[in-house]
């Protein structure tokens, strides 16, 4: 009996030992990591485009509403006043009632008419029909020999955007990330917008518009990048395109806000300073940081946690043994506190030959696109049509532009689409010249054809503008993507900064403004021929990875063509 009990105990120990070995083997298998890129995790486990990504796109795109409002508010605040009239005392003293009545009837909004009438009158003998507080031009007498001063605030706004794009782009890539930059930009936008309403003269106003342009530039950069870095490859174009619905909503809201307070331009600035504050407290806390940026900064655990959160909202679950990597790199930094980043901090667009060449082409293209896109909108007052109705029509034309652009992006090459839309916009702008002579009669029947062609041309330029922003995100890797987008937007703003000067010239010669807009748009459309196609291409993480993988693709294409 004793021997049998001893034997049973030995068998039990042996079974327990074998079971322990099996458990250890299972644990070892469980601990074996699946090394996947962000693209692979999104496609396989998170979902290419689900509820979580849709919510992220909506949240970050809300910032485009007040970005649009701050960019285009000067269409109303800095507009040529609607008309003028002689003062009663001046009529009795030195001017005949018939002269004032005849000239007042045609005195609204055309600089050529003003030069022939108002500019020749003595100070104090006439007044604006809408009052001196209706626009900045009326309040500070920015007409006649001071007419080009009216273009300075808007030009400085876009120049401020250029500096802001450079500042925010680099800061978002190497330090604060996309979400914190979005928060900072919203705070500064609200502050500078409100202070613009307190400007005592055109010079302080110009400085505050410069500051406002600097502040708001971070909104557009981060909203586009945050939207496109959390979705699968096939959804990037549509997501980037549909985000511009919110930009359109901001533009469409402006005439409805401006019309009831059309006699007080300062009130308009105070009203549009409020949405950024609401956005900061209600929506920004719900935005998630880009997992791609977290990964290239060496914060793997945070990146993985963001992906798990996105998967949970999509009612999916990530495996526990996933390890995020950057393709083509042998090692990664997995510890949370490691200060080293996965990407090389010395990687720079301007020191990488292929990237610098690509960036220069994008910026030249962007300069023309920005000049035309904003030039058409700011030039609406030279159409001799109701300003509020013209802005509404242009805003409504953005909607089919976004829809058509989104559909075309799903099956059309980016390079071809950006080129054709830019050239089409240029041709339509030139066609507007045909109706300029007829519209000078200032009748509704002669203005409608010109307005229709201008609106279709604006739709084409809007498609180009939207596609360029998406195209730029796909052309560069994560570790320099925000900087690349900021450079692209800086070139857009540089073009836009010159468009107010064209508008001022267009008050004297509307045909000239449309010739310049059309020619520049056509020239810009030819530049995209030198850019590579990015449709269905992956989003790379580093410049080194992108260079290696694109070179490998080119090598395979050469081999396949040689065999053929």
Characterization of this structure:
It is built from 26 helices and 4 strands. It is mainly α. The protein folds into 2 domains: 35-83 and 129-327, MFS general substrate transporter like domains (Growth Hormone, Chain: A, Up-down Bundle); 349-553, MFS general substrate transporter like domains (Growth Hormone, Chain: A), CATH 1.20.1250.20. It has a two-stranded parallel sheet with strand order 1-4. Strands 2-3 form a two-stranded antiparallel ribbon. Helix 13 packs antiparallel against helix 20. The longest helix is centred in the last third of the chain and has 32 residues, at 444-475. Residues 24-30, 101-113 and 330-343 have low confidence and may be disordered. GO terms for molecular function: transmembrane transporter activity. Pfam families: Sugar_tr. This is Major facilitator superfamily (MFS) profile domain-containing protein. Residues 1-24 are annotated as: Disordered.
**Uncertain spans, ≥5 residues at pLDDT below 50?**
24-30, 101-113, 330-343
Task: Kindly state the number of beta strands.
Answer: 4
Q: Name the structural class.
A: mainly alpha
Q: Specify the helix fraction band.
A: 55-70%
The Cα radius of gyration reads: 29 Å
> What is the string of SSEs from the N terminus onward?
HEHHHHEHHHEHHHHHHHHHHEHHHHHHHH
Mean pLDDT, as a whole number?
81
């Amino acid at each position: 009996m004793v021997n049998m009990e001893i034997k049973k105990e030995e068998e039990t120990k042996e079974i327990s030992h074998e079971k322990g070995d099996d458990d250890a083997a299972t644990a070892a298998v469980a601990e074996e990591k699946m090394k996947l890129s962000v693209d692979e995790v999104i496609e396989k486990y998170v979902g290419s485009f689900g509820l979580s990504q849709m919510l992220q796109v909506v949240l970050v795109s809300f910032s485009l509403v007040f970005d649009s409002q701050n960019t285009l508010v000067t269409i109303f605040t800095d507009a040529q006043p609607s008309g003028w009239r002689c003062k009663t005392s001046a009529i009795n003293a030195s001017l005949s009632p018939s002269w004032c009545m005849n000239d007042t009837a045609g005195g609204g909004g055309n600089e050529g008419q003003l030069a022939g009438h108002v500019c020749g009158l003595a100070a104090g003998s006439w007044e604006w029909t809408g009052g001196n507080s209706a626009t900045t031009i009326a309040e500070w007498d920015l007409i006649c020999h001071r007419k080009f001063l009216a273009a300075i605030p808007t030009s400085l706004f876009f120049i401020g955007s250029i500096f802001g794009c450079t500042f925010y782009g680099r800061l978002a890539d190497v330090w604060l990330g996309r979400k914190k930059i979005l928060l900072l930009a919203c705070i500064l936008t609200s502050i500078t917008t409100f202070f613009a309403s307190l400007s005592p003269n055109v010079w302080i106003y110009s400085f505050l518009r410069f500051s406002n342009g600097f502040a708001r530039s971070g909104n557009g950069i981060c909203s586009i990048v945050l939207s496109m870095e959390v979705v699968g490859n096939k959804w990037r174009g549509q997501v980037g395109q549909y985000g511009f619905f919110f930009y359109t909503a901001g533009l469409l809201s402006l005439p409805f806000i401006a019309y009831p307070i059309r006699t007080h331009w300062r009130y308009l600035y105070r009203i549009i300073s409020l949405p950024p504050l609401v956005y900061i407290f209600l929506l920004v806390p719900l935005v998630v940081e880009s997992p791609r940026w977290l990964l290239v900064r060496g914060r793997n655990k945070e990146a993985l946690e963001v992906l798990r959160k996105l998967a949970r909202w999509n009612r999916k679950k990530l495996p526990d043994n996933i390890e995020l990597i950057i393709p083509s790199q042998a090692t990664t930094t997995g510890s949370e506190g490691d200060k080293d980043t996965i990407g090389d901090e010395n990687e720079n667009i301007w020191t990488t030959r292929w990237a610098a060449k690509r960036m220069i082409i994008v910026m030249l293209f962007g300069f023309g696109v920005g000049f035309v896109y904003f030039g058409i909108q700011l030039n609406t007052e030279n159409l001799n049509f109701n300003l509020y109705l013209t802005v509404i029509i242009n805003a409504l034309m953005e909607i089919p532009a976004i829809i058509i652009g989104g559909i075309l992006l799903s099956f059309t090459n980016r390079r071809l689409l950006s080129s054709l839309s830019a050239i089409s916009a240029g041709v339509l702008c030139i066609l507007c010249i045909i109706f300029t002579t007829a519209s000078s009669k200032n009748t509704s029947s002669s203005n409608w054809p010109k307005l229709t062609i201008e609106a279709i041309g604006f739709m084409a330029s809007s498609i180009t503008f939207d596609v360029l922003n998406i195209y730029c995100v796909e052309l560069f890797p994560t570790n320099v993507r925000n900087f690349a987008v900021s450079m692209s937007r800086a070139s857009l703003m540089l073009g836009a900064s010159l468009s107010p000067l064209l508008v001022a010239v267009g008050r004297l010669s509307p045909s000239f403004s449309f010739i310049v807009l059309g020619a520049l748009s056509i020239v810009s459309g030819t530049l995209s021929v030198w850019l590579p196609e990015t449709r269905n291409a992956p989003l790379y993480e580093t410049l080194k990875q992108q260079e290696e993988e694109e070179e490998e693709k080119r090598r395979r294409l050469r081999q396949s063509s040689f065999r053929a």
